[in-house]
Design a protein that fits this description.
Elements lengths: L4 E4 L3 H12 L1 H4 L2 E5 L2 H13 L9 E5 L5 H11 L3 E4 L6 H11 L2 E4 L24 H7 L3 E3 L7 H13 L2 E11 L13 H9 L2 E5 L2 E5 L5 E6 L3 E7 L3 H9 L4 E7 L2 H12 L8 E2 L5 E2 L1 H8 L13 E12 L2 E12 H8 L3 H18 L8 E3 L5 H11 L4 E4 L2 E4 L7 H11 L1
Parallel strand pairs: 1-2, 1-4, 2-3, 4-5, 5-6, 6-17, 7-12
Antiparallel strand pairs: 7-15, 8-9, 10-11, 11-12, 13-14, 15-16, 16-18, 18-19
Helix pairs in contact: 1-3, 1-13, 4-5, 7-14, 13-14
Length: 428
């Protein structure tokens, strides 16, 4: 059994993680928050205390940390006696934090693929470029490393695993659809770190089609769906983390990711890109100062965490799965709807941060109680989906399903262990 959590990062997602971890501190133990900007950590601590999120009296502390410094991260893990590290900092620090966990024996959880700041849209599968190269060593050392434990990637991976296990005999396609139908009231802003946000869309769009990697350009391919609660929405095919593990771990020929964008976002993005302002490569100004255009754009845009107080509307994120069951073709949409105002009222963050921040705490609880303490590196779809989805239901992210029988709350069924193992073995 593992206890004591170190949260690395101090943005909107970290705030959700801190609140939710505090709400389960009877199981998780001491809660520590670390970032380069310690003032932000103190603000999160204050928010947790003001909202009385701690389930029971306990340790809740802020720390200053440059998580790229492996030795410093290792020292902080040892100082705090943290046995579970939840990394919700920049995607640039993943491998450094993972290495510190491997040196200390702490379990590792993240919510996104590692990125090299000087590279965009590397060759797929993206996990193969960094994380999976450490899988053998993780298993040799008995280190639990749970990759991509946010919502997408994360919960949608678990939805896919559940669909393969319970709702289909064969799956033809998984289309992950992510729509934010909310409004933050700003002329232009991104819902999470602008640098990471823009990097997702400036390179090639990779999808898994006919069992091979397929390239497209951003905003080249779109679709329209009538979704629960948020209604008819147009989304665009986008490259995304979960495709890169699902294509390996599930026997599915077509896996795509679709995200909703408003016309203003598309227009501003296009202008910025065409002007070269979304480049990750440094340039030198006429005054001789070296700057990275993308970082300048990030500096002038609103801090995503500042959007929360005025955010309204809802998100809808889920898996549209098509295939056959008992010889009959079927289509199933497994999804969640989150509300921006409700999220802010509970933890002081908007729903984008909420959907990303609740799942890693659920993963931490499953590591703490041993169900997901697997002593190896794993993507979410490789882990038993039922306890994860059940926990999320009680933590503010209920799952629903829409199929030929209507739209309803999803009821979790516990599979026969042998059947579940056979399904996973067939996928590999």
């Amino acid at each position: 059994m593992k206890k004591n959590v170190l949260i690395i990062g101090a943005g909107g997602v970290a705030q959700v993680v801190a609140h939710k971890a505090a709400m389960s501190n009877d199981a998780l133990g001491d809660i520590h928050i670390a970032s380069r900007t310690v003032d932000k950590c103190h603000q999160i601590v204050q928010s947790v205390l003001e909202k009385r999120s701690l389930k029971m009296p306990g340790v809740l502390q802020a720390h200053q940390l440059d998580a790229l410094d492996i030795a410093a991260t290792k020292a902080l893990i040892e100082k705090t006696r943290a046995q579970i590290v939840i990394n919700v900092g920049s995607a640039f620090i993943n491998m450094s934090v993972l290495e510190a966990c491997m040196q200390t024996g702490a379990a590792y959880i993240d919510t996104a693929i590692h990125e090299d700041p000087k590279k965009i849209c590397e060759t797929p599968p993206w996990y193969g470029n960094y994380e999976w190269k450490r899988a053998e060593l993780c298993e040799k050392r008995g280190i639990t490393a749970i990759l991509g434990a946010g919502f997408d990637p994360g919960v949608v991976n678990s939805y896919a695993a559940l669909a393969a296990e319970q709702y289909f005999d064969t799956i033809e396609s998984i289309d992950i659809i992510d729509v934010n139908a909310g409004s933050h009231g700003k002329y232009f802003a991104t819902n999470f770190d602008p640098e990471i946000n823009f990097r997702e869309f400036t390179g090639r769009v990779w999808s898994w089609q006919d069992r091979q990697w397929t390239q497209n350009q951003m905003f080249e391919v779109k679709r329209t769906d009538d979704l629960p609660v948020v209604g008819e929405q147009t989304t665009y095919m986008t490259g995304h983390d979960e495709i890169h593990s699902l294509s390996k771990n599930l026997d599915v020929p077509n896996i795509r990711f679709w995200m909703g964008f408003g016309e203003r976002y598309i227009n501003v993005f296009t202008v910025l890109k065409n002007l070269g302002l979304l480049s990750e490569q440094p340039i030198t100004t006429a005054e001789g100062q070296e700057v990275v255009p993308l970082k300048v754009v990030k500096a002038v845009l609103p801090d995503p965490s500042s959007l929360a107080p005025d955010y309204s509307g809802k998100t809808c994120i889920g898996d549209l799965v098509k295939g056959t069951k008992d010889g009959v073709e079927r289509e199933v949409f497994i999804y969640n709807v989150a509300d921006h105002e409700e999220s802010y009222g509970e933890v002081g963050s908007q729903a984008i941060s909420y959907t990303a921040g609740v799942p890693p705490v659920a993963a931490a609880l499953l590591i703490a109680n041993g169900k997901w303490d697997v002593k190896r590196m794993a993507n979410i779809e490789e882990l038993t989906p039922q306890p994860f989805i059940e926990l999320l239901d009680g933590m503010g992210l209920p799952t629903r399903i829409r199929d030929e029988n209507g739209d309803r709350a999803l009821t979790i069924e516990t599979p026969e262990p042998a059947a579940a193992k056979a399904k996973l073995a067939m996928a590999h």
